[in-house]
Design brief:
By secondary structure, the protein is α+β, with helices and mostly antiparallel strands. It has 5 helices and 18 strands. It binds FE2/S2 (inorganic) cluster and fe (ii) ion. Pfam families: Rieske, VanA_C.
């Protein structure tokens, strides 16, 4: 239960980071992978380990069709199959066609690449890859590595209680006072949404949109928070993805998309603000992790902590459904939550 879900799609970085035949080494759930894009345009993800002596294939050249191991020159196709062992004599009967590197499924969506690290036969239907419902005029991506477990990091995506104390910057939360909040939560596939409502927030970020925007926040397994803001034809989306790198390191990726070309001008200002915001999470998460390392228990308390409890319920259901080979059934119900933040 403390491990990240084994069968789910995790963000492994922006899709445009693989342009020009580049290979990238990525960590995902304790696994080292090499990802790339072939001449045919298809993305691939392979275990970053040559079967011969364990060399990282990401350190070798890639010609758009085969990856060459820099240790003894073995070549592998983007499907993981061995294509050539150049040191083999013509008179050697050894057959390399059965040698394979483990491939992993990879997809592109919302400008990012998503990998499912599960090995073996698929278990259940993994949560869908996040999509973007409009054509963005621009986007801004900030990635930040957090030295904390995946669960602790994901909880920060659904935890309303920390916002007033951790994200107390003028531009995000000008008022210092805690106010009563009443929000309706509804289950959706593999998660829950905070139902769309006319926001009453005084945040200058929302005011940029003009009018009274509608905000909808969705959380879904394995660690995805999708905030969609709409004012008439104008769209802004703030997506946050948590990716388990190893047992105590988690990547937080934040992507802001907007439909209005005029907002492109704000990009140089928005980037440091987004870094500041994520850095606030990074600092408290790393310090809290040290406390959890000494004693791993948490007291989840009051309605403001219910979304955190729901995360664990959703995750347990996904694990149990996967083990039993049955369909995931969302265990949550629609309800109103009250807290102060
Ligand atoms: S380690 Fe890869 S070819 Fe020898
Ligand atoms: Fe936060």
């Amino acid at each position: 239960m403390r491990q990240p879900l084994p069968s789910a799609w995790y963000c492994v970085g922006p899709a445009d980071s693989l342009s020009g035949g580049r290979l990238r080494a990525v960590a995902l759930n304790g696994e080292q992978m090499v990802i790339g894009r072939g001449k045919d345009g298809a993305f691939f993800a392979l275990r970053d380990r040559c079967p011969h002596r364990g060399m990282a294939l990401s350190k070798g050249p890639f010609d758009g069709q085969t990856l060459m191991c820099p240790f003894h020159g073995w070549r592998f196709g983007t499907d993981g199959g061995c294509r050539d062992v150049p040191t083999l004599s013509e008179h050697d009967a050894a057959d390399f066609s059965r040698i394979r590197v483990q491939p992993f499924p990879i997809r592109e969506s919302a400008g990012f690449l998503w990998v499912n690290p599960h090995l073996g036969a698929p278990v259940g239907e993994p949560p869908a890859v996040p999509e973007l419902g409009f054509k963005p005029a621009g986007s801004l991506v900030v990635e930040l590595e957090v030295e904390a477990s995946f669960d602790l990091t994901v909880l920060s995506l659904v935890d309303p209680g920390h916002v007033a104390f951790v994200h107390d910057t003028w531009w995000f939360r000008p008022s210092k006072q805690l106010r009563e909040k009443v929000k309706i939560f509804e289950p959706v596939m593999h998660g829950f949404t905070m139902a769309s409502h006319a926001t009453t927030t005084s945040s200058p970020v929302y005011r940029l949109l003009g009018g009274v925007p509608e905000v909808e926040i969705e959380f879904r397994l394995p660690g995805v928070r999708l905030e969609r803001i709409r004012a008439g034809e104008k769209h802004v989306a703030n997506y946050t993805f948590a990716t388990p790198l190893s047992s105590n390191r988690t990547m937080l990726t934040n992507a802001l998309y907007w439909s209005m070309p005029a907002l492109n001008l704000l990009k140089p200002v928005a980037r440091p603000l987004m870094r500041q915001f994520l850095g606030q999470d990074q600092r408290v998460l790393q310090d809290a992790q040290k406390g959890l390392d000494r004693k791993p228990t948490m007291v989840l308390f009051g309605q403001g902590d219910l979304p955190s409890q729901w995360y664990f319920r959703l995750k347990r259901e996904a694990l149990e459904a996967g083990l039993a080979g049955r369909t995931f059934v969302n265990p949550l119900e629609r309800r109103e939550l009250r807290w102060r933040s």
